[in-house]
Predict the 3D structure of the following.
Amino acid sequence: MRSFKDGDTIVVEPWRAKAFPVLRDLVVNRSAFDRIIQKGGFISVDTGSAPDANIIPVPKPMAEKAMDAAACIGCGACVAACKNASAMLFVSAKISQLSLLPQGKVEASARVQKMVAQMDAEGFGNCTNTGACSAECPKEISQENIARMNREFMIAKLTSNIEV
Ligand code: SF4
């Protein structure tokens, strides 16, 4: 992922993401991501079969944004790059890929609250909009997803009484 010339100075920073415990050199435990997904990164309502999905009209811009968000591979590079060890790029991509589509809107309010609560419980930091995450993301996940997640979260908190 990187190339260096002879004589370049390489600064190796200490690993700062406590939510990704170091197992050994260059190996960290990313199961915190799995636990966040288990809280809501899925659709549990009956959305019918494939033909049913095909007859629900989805505006092309929305479908493309959802597909862009779905490109996230959960690598964790965003967390590693962030000075706050924030996982908001990952979590917002997983939330956006579902909430942008009609099938995912039904559970959107509960999903964003539960996934954000788990993200916080795991000890990830907050986002301060430095953009290191999206700059390092191999899938070019946009920070627009973080803005969408924050908006969904605030609306959910104001309009629902779900216990998380
Ligand atoms: S760096 Fe990009 S692809 Fe990897 S987990 Fe973060 S958002 Fe997903």
Q: What stands out?
A: Residues 144-159 form the longest helix (16 residues).
